[in-house]
Every structure is written in structure tokens, then in C-alpha cells.
Design goal:
The complex is a heterodimer of chains A (361) and B (297). Helix content of chain A is 25%, strand content 33%. By secondary structure, chain A is an alpha+beta fold. A six-stranded mixed beta sheet of chain A has the order 6-7-8-3-9-10, sandwiched between helices. A five-stranded antiparallel beta sheet of chain A has the order 13-12-11-14-20. Chain A has a five-stranded antiparallel beta sheet with strand order 15-19-16-17-18. The relative contact order of chain A is 0.12. The model of chain A has no long low-confidence stretch (mean pLDDT 87). With 297 residues, chain B is mainly alpha-helical. The chains are: A alpha+beta (361), B mainly alpha (297).
């Protein structure tokens, strides 16, 4: 089922949870709603499901207006962050619930219900738990049962609210892979909410990046990571080094230092306040010599575990306005040896790829 | 009030504390505290309870049963059962509706409603009775209209039922609100996304989740409905065989120096209290077992 969200506004008292969100998702994709907590992503998901109503705007499911449709009739499967399994029912009854509450005419026979529930439990690989109660299951198992329960009514779209939020790191990783595989098998349009960028980048076909009730960028994981459209997208996704300064021709003046950058299509005038971001693997370290440009910094720590070593540096004008700026650079151990890096050594930083944005502050 | 959710007689915390030498108190402290508690319990609780049954049976079993089947006593028992049989089911419905509204929905005036539910607890039962006299009595607001239409509320059975309903109103709602609030509305929302109607969600999801607390509230509500004296006394008019409930009948007999009969009827009320306690303990044990199972897993 395709999903179209048009100009949704929603406020809770004085707090604007959603401020004009529009979005169009084709059928069959696995989409991540990504953003920091409080950005409105869960509210948007609940509005699509019909569990919350928008103050303004409309929702279209499969091209038909669903804004005034009851949750029951929207054919959405919803998986709650804390699972919301029925605590007094066995796993089997939980999954069977959606079939048992169907109107008498549509209700399948007991034999068909049994067959279908067991097939779903097989799908989530938990058929051996059919007679247990939710309180007897681990978090990961509960989540999978919640998913099987949602799938039982054959929803046209699957909505998952922070599906892995309450699980520990290892189970998370496993379930992520499993969700991706499940989606590839069933091809059901799915939207999941997450604040974990790694999760979104790893699992989703498409990422909707949100901040403060607005959409910042929509795109595939590659695009979101490599071509961030806004300064928020840049700073939220992945690790970045942040430089604030003013434009001076082909340079960025950061404090007393000059950082070279290639003029972008932003058409920035001299003196324009900007903020620039560089990924750790795009940042270069140079020896401190007078004739070179680059931002001066001091090596703070060198973390040499893994194929790439991470060098953590402190900005020179440290403790600027009471806060310390740290930089991170990824190098091979050979490069570190070549540069003779050690704790306390002063160096200059430049970047191969600098994303520059107007500074709104 | 939400003892069902909080009490857990199987926690084993106390005995663990006691077995550990590092946390154990000296013997004399133990005996002093225990002795004080037991003495207090014996003098103020056990002794009166025993006295009720001893006094009731002082003149033998035949006198005891005669006092209970005597027409006025039998009428009082019937009226008490009738009042409880009307008040408890009504408060069951009101209580669930109020708790449901407060726990699952946000609306203006919610805080006011919570405060109002507590009103019968905070106001003296005598005042509660007087309110009904002022509203429905001969000199009250609706008094003239009621007497014109030959409807009797005050000094009649309807007044007693009304006063009982008022006094026992909070028991079930107070029991359910904290539990339903802590359970949230996730499960109901899940039920609805799975296609359940509101009614199905209530019967299949909400009600099973609150059944122990609900039963507990009903038990307390029933005990109070049968034992209420103050409010009922004001609206009853003390007409023998007509508007006397058991507690009122006990008072009348006592004032007439029919001690054996008074204690005989009182013993029934005491028995009701004991049965209530037994059921309450059983429910707590059941609910405690359920929550213990949930904790263990």
C-alpha cells in the first residue's frame, strides 16, 4: 500500500510536534523515520495508523483519503515500542486475537485460525513458545510475537515504533537483520521509527530524516550519508568534525586559522558565517609548519584498535565559550607512524571533503 | 487503596533480613515490638470480636436463632441485603466507567472528577444522609413535588439505597484508577489496530487485566454497604420491620436492653466482616501469585 502524507500539523499544547510534514512513500519499501527524540517521528507514525489525529492535513492510503477512517479500517499493523502484548493471554491467543475479533461472517474457523497462527509463529521462529505467556518471554521474543500478531490480520502496511529500542545491543543487531530478511520475503510496505542512525542506515531502503517536527531530508542510506542536504543531516548522521567560521575567498576562517575549501554552489559571500562538517575519514592531519593552512589542534588520544586507528584531537582555541571542541580523524597505523603522532603533539587539520552550510546561529 | 497491586506476601524480604546476622536485631527488641503489637491486637481487635460471639450465645443457641428469625430482625436482614444488592452492582458500573474515563482518556475537568470521587470518603456519613434529607425530605427542594406524586424517598427504602450508594461510591473506582493508569492504554490500542471494536477491547483486554482489583473493590464495597450506619440512620426514620437495616436494628435492640438479641444480629455483621477478610486475603494471595510469576520471569 502506498502512503501519502500531506501537510500534517500537530501540536500538543504549546509544543509543535509536527509542523507541515509531507511525504510520499511507494508500495513495498522498508522506510525508516529517523530523528532525535522529540522530533515528531512517533507522532507521525501514530497519525498514519490513526491512533492520533492531526490538527491539519491529510493521510492517503493506496491513493484513497484515510484521514477520517477508523484505525480498524485502515488495515495497518502496528508494533508498539513496549510490545503491548496481552498479558493474560498465551502467545497463541495473542497472535490469534486479530482473527477472533473479526465480525462473525468473516471469522475463520477454529482449524484455520490454528493453522494460520502456527504458520506465523513458524515465520518468527517461535512456534515452540505457543503456550507460554508474555511474561515468560525475553524482550526479543516478545518483539517477534508482537510482529506475528500484527501480521495475522494481513495488514497492507506495517508500522513499527522503535521496534528495537528496549533491547540490548546484540539482540538488536540480530533482530535488525531478521526484520530486513522478513521484509524481503513478504514485501509488505513498512515504516519503522528509530533514533539510531546506524539502525536506519543498515536496515532501510529509504530514510526520512526528521528534526523539530519537520523533514530534513528523504533519501536512500547512501545519499543520506554521502550527500547530507542540511547542516542537521550532516551533524546527525555519522561522526563529523564541526568547524564554525567565516568565508574568506577559497578559505574558511576558523579562529586564527584558515581552512581551505572548494567554493560550493551555495554562492557564499565573503564574511558569511558558516558551519562546515568533515567525516573523520575525510579529515587529514599535517605537521605543524608555518606555511601550511589548516586548523591547529593538539593530539589528545590515539585509539589503536582495529584496522583503522582513531586519533582524537582538541581544538586549539580550546574551551571556547566554556566548551571543548574535539576532532576525530581515522588513519592507518602506518600513517600515524609516518606522521610521528603522539599525545600532546600539535598538528594542522584539513579536509578532503568539506560540507559547508550557512550558519543560522 | 491499591493493596492488590502493592502487597506481596511472598516477597521473602523480611525473612532474608532476619536470617542475616549483620542485619538481625537483638532478641529483646524483637520480643518487645512483637509483644506490643500482639497485646494491642488482642485488646482492641480480638477481645471485642470474641465478646460479640460470647454475648450473642450467652443465653444459648435457641435464643440466638430466635433473635435472628424474629420478624423485625428478618426484615432488617432482608433490607440490608436488598440495599447492598442494588448499591454494589450500580457502583460496579459507575466505578468501572469512572476509572476507565480517568485512566484511559484526557479531558478537561479530570482532576475535579478525581476529587469528587473521593468526596464520600472525606465527608461525614451523617452529612451525606442530611444532604438527601435536604434534597428529597418533606421540607427539601423536591419534597412538595414528591409528596404530590405520592413518592416516598426519605424515611423509606429508596432513601436507604441512595445513601448506601453515595457512601460506597469510591471503593471500586479508587481501587481501579491506579491500576488502570499504571497499565496504560497500549494494550487497548493494540487491540483496536488488530480490528477489535471498543466493546471487544473492553471485554477481552481491559476487564481480564483488572479482574482481581475489581473483585477486591466489590468485596470492600459490599462490606461497607452492609455495615453502613451513619448516613442510613439519618434517612431511615427507624421504622421497625420497614426501614431498619441490620446496623440500625442492633442499635435499637441495644437501647431496649435486649443484649442477647442485639449481639446476635451484631454477630452476623461480624461474621460478614470475617468472611470479607477471608475473601480479601484469598484475592490478595491470588493477585500476589500472578504478579510474583510476572516478576520471576
Amino acid at each position: 500500500m502506498s502512503i501519502e502524507v500531506r501537510d500534517i500539523h500537530k501540536s500538543f499544547g504549546a509544543f509543535k510536534a509536527l509542523d507541515g510534514v509531507s511525504l510520499s512513500l511507494p508500495k513495498g519499501e522498508l522506510v525508516a523515520l529517523l530523528g532525535p527524540s522529540g522530533c515528531g517521528k512517533t507522532t507521525l507514525l501514530r497519525i498514519i495508523a490513526g491512533l492520533e489525529s492531526a490538527d491539519y492535513g491529510s493521510i492517503r492510503l493506496s491513493g484513497a483519503d484515510a484521514t477520517a477512517k477508523h484505525v480498524r479500517e485502515r488495515q495497518v499493523g502496528f508494533v508498539f515500542q513496549h510490545y503491548a502484548l496481552f498479558r493474560h493471554m498465551s502467545v497463541f491467543e495473542n497472535v490469534a486475537f486479530g482473527l477472533r475479533v473479526k465480525p462473525r461472517g468473516e471469522r475463520p474457523s477454529e482449524a484455520i485460525i490454528r493453522e494460520k497462527v502456527m504458520r506465523l509463529l513458524d515465520l518468527v521462529q517461535l512456534s515452540w513458545l505457543a503456550d507460554r505467556f508474555p511474561s515468560q518471554l525475553s524482550g526479543g521474543q516478545r518483539q517477534r510475537i508482537a510482529l506475528a500478531r500484527a501480521l495475522a490480520v494481513e495488514p497492507q502496511v506495517l508500522l513499527l515504533d522503535e521496534p528495537f529500542g528496549a533491547l540490548d545491543a546484540k539482540v538488536r543487531k540480530e533482530l535488525r537483520r531478521w526484520l530486513r530478511r522478513l521484509h524481503d520475503e513478504l514485501h509488505i510496505s513498512s515504516i519503522f521509527v528509530t533514533h539510531d542512525q546506524e539502525e536506519a542506515l543498515e536496515v532501510a531502503d529509504k530514510i526520512v530524516l526528521m528534526n523539530k517536527g519537520r523533514i530534513e531530508q528523504i533519501g536512500g542510506p547512501r545519499e543520506i550519508y554521502n550527500e547530507p542536504a542540511t547542516s542537521f543531516a550532516c551533524s546527525f548522521i555519522g561522526n563529523v568534525n564541526e568547524f564554525r567560521g567565516r568565508i574568506e575567498g577559497n578559505y574558511l576562517r576558523v579562529g586564527d586559522d584558515l581552512l581551505p575549501h572548494e567554493p560550493s554552489d551555495l554562492d557564499l559571500a565573503d564574511g558569511q558565517a558558516v558551519v562546515a562538517y568533515a567525516r573523520p575519514h575525510d579529515t587529514e592531519i599535517h605537521p605543524l609548519s608555518a606555511d601550511r593552512s589548516g586548523v591547529t589542534a593538539k593530539v589528545n588520544r590515539i585509539l589503536e584498535s582495529g584496522a583503522l586507528a582513531r586519533v582524537e584531537l582538541v581544538a586549539n582555541g580550546a574551551a571556547r565559550e566554556g566548551r571543548t571542541d574535539y576532532f576525530e580523524v581515522e588513519l592507518t597505523p602506518a600513517e600515524i607512524a609516518e606522521l610521528g603522532l603522539e599525545t600532546g603533539k600539535r598538528v594542522r587539520l584539513t579536509s578532503r571533503r568539506l560540507s559547508v552550510f550557512r550558519d543560522k546561529q | 487503596m491499591s493493596a492488590v497491586t502493592q502487597l506481596n506476601p511472598h516477597s521473602g524480604f523480611a525473612s532474608r533480613f532476619e536470617r542475616n546476622i549483620a542485619t538481625r536485631d537483638p532478641r529483646w527488641v524483637k520480643f518487645l515490638v512483637l509483644g506490643l503489637g500482639l497485646t494491642f491486637f488482642a485488646v482492641f481487635l480480638l477481645l471485642p470480636l470474641v465478646a460479640v460471639f460470647v454475648e450473642a450465645l450467652r443465653k444459648g443457641w435457641s435464643t440466638y436463632f430466635a433473635a435472628l428469625v424474629e420478624p423485625d430482625a428478618a426484615a432488617a436482614i432482608r433490607l440490608t441485603l436488598l440495599a447492598a444488592a442494588i448499591a454494589v452492582p450500580l457502583n460496579l458500573v459507575f466505578g468501572i466507567a469512572a476509572a476507565w474515563a480517568i485512566a484511559k482518556f484526557d479531558f478537561p475537568g479530570k482532576q475535579l472528577l478525581i476529587t469528587l470521587i473521593d468526596l464520600p470518603f472525606s465527608v461525614s456519613p451523617v452529612v451525606a444522609g442530611l444532604i438527601y434529607v435536604l434534597v428529597f425530605g418533606a421540607q427539601g427542594w423536591f419534597g412538595p413535588w414528591l409528596s404530590e406524586h405520592d413518592i416516598r424517598i426519605i424515611f423509606a427504602v429508596p432513601g436507604i439505597v441512595l445513601a448506601t450508594i453515595f457512601v460506597t461510591f469510591p471503593f471500586i473506582a479508587r481501587e481501579l484508577i491506579p491500576l488502570m493508569q499504571s497499565q496504560g492504554r497500549d494494550e487497548e490500542e493494540a487491540a483496536i489496530t488488530l480490528g477489535a471494536s471498543g466493546w471487544q477491547a473492553f471485554w477481552r483486554v481491559t476487564l481480564p487485566n483488572i479482574k482481581w482489583a475489581l473483585l477486591y473493590g466489590v468485596i470492600l464495597c459490599n462490606a461497607r454497604a452492609m455495615g453502613e450506619f451513619g448516613a442510613v440512620s439519618v434517612v431511615s426514620g427507624h421504622i421497625r420491620g420497614e426501614t431498619n437495616t441490620m446496623p440500625l436494628h442492633v442499635e435499637i435492640l441495644y437501647n431496649e436492653y435486649q443484649f442477647a438479641a442485639a449481639f446476635a444480629v451484631a454477630s452476623l455483621l461480624a461474621l460478614l466482616a470475617l468472611v470479607t477478610l477471608a475473601i480479601k486475603t484469598y484475592i490478595e494471595w491470588q493477585a500476589g501469585r500472578v504478579s510474583l510469576q510476572e516478576q520471576l520471569r
